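Sample intake — protein-disulfide reductase
Collected from: Quercus rubra
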Amino acid sequence: MAGGGEENVTEIVINDEAHDFRSLLSSSERDFLVRNNGDQVKIESLKEKKLALYFSASWCGPCRRFTPILIEVYNELSSRGDFEVIFVSGDEDEESFKGYFSKMPWLAIPFSDSETRDRLDELFKVSGIPHCVILDEEGKVVSDNGVEIIREYGIEAYPFTQQKIKDLKDQEEAARKNQSLRSILVSPSRDFVISSDGKKVPVSELEGKTVGLYFSLFSYKACDDFTPKLDEVYEKLKAKGENFEIVLIPLEEDEESFNQGFKSLHWFALPVKDKSCQKLARYFELTTLPTLVIIGPDGKTLQSNVAEAIDEHGVLAYPFTPERFTELAEMEKAKQEAQTLESILVSGDQDFVIGKDGVKIPVTDLVGKNILLYFSAHWCPPCRAFLPKLMDAYHKIKAKDDAFEVIFISSDRDQASFDEFFSGMPWLALPFGDPRKASLSRTFKVHGIPLLVAIGPSGKTVTKEARDIIMVHGADAYPFTDERLKEIEAQIEELAKGWPEKLKLKLHEEHELVLARRRIYSCDGCGEEGHVWSYYCDECDFDLHPKCALKEDKEANDDSKGEENPHEGWNCDGETCFKV
């Protein structure tokens, strides 16, 4: 069985071939399946049932997360008597199989029958787990995408046919067109939300208001950081008498964790583990956390996610209308145009950065210089990998222009990690835990590290892509302006003039190598890192640095010339010499 990994297929794959379930599930020595208590169940008893072949293993994290979802669906369907799940284990030993299977209410291929398990793997082309193949009563494959379908739709997708999934998608589309707060928040078994003190509040009391649907996980740090800010904005808006409410859509599996986080908040929530939570996550195409969807007074979606806007602008983002967001964009543009080094690095008494041994360097001493803000952390492998390249560029630039500096802005988790990482850097830093880091992260929308922001002598932002620029061009790109990058681009194009567009070389005899722009690569000839130009084979992902490719081409041509007409009356083609 292939290694673990969640399925990433959204379409339904069907097959008209009918599989005989007896020959599919049995062997020459076995005509039964097993339950987790050891009972044997005749395969013949599955006749006229829909079957789900569940390829899974105890060592696979995505499998362990999906199995409880499948158990819930199975238990709801079990009373129908026309559906069965069969576990096809990918475990490597019987003890692991038994421990995992003990939690499953369905049947399994015996662990001892590895031949049948391997045959099923091969027959259904299982390339990753969890994987679930759905067969109808005739043994035809209804879908080999059962994991995705069940995860998205649960029991609503039964009997998991292509037509049923199409019907569900059509219903969702119709619901979007006729969306109201009730259609979003009310389910067949619930017409209320809950407050932090446990009271049930009818959804009807929220109608006509602007409502924020807050998708969150209390255990997720980004949510943990944002939730207090959102609660503060909510309290300010309520104090001003604004007609605004928040409904938490908890994605927690643990009820205790939810209760602990929710009890101090002032808004409403759906009950933890309510089926609507996952359904709404799918409906609003949730891709990131935290997400705050804004529903207008008319029940229509006003904004798909205002978490970042609230993080940056607080109550000013209200009432979250397109007009307000246009105003905020104009404010942001004006702020950027007025930006100075002091406006981004000075906050009250915090008007300095530090050098070695904690020496304080006033921000005013850096005004007029080219500055790189280096967002990084010791625990981050890409940060550690980039550091030597940045240090090399730093030393080369400083040797030519002393009006240049780098400021390390740390995301390290403790003072010791910060000290260790900073000790190897030749530049300046914000002190560890400095509150200015949060402001800078908001200003430059830092969503990942390492990030390198170039600030020009005027204090305005030159580029947020300085890391990529240095990775490709190094110190030559200084001062990282558009003008300098255009000069480099012209030099790059000039460099390749006269080079052949294609080469056929012995180093890669399978295909021609084509001259191509390649950002960063490892040369398959010399093993060194290459940039910008490569002689490349897309089919084989084969790179040759131009110096390696052109050198081999020259040597091959020289050899060929040396072999031309080596003796009067003979002709050589590179492989054999023939008598004329």
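Post-analysis note: The longest strand covers residues 508-522.
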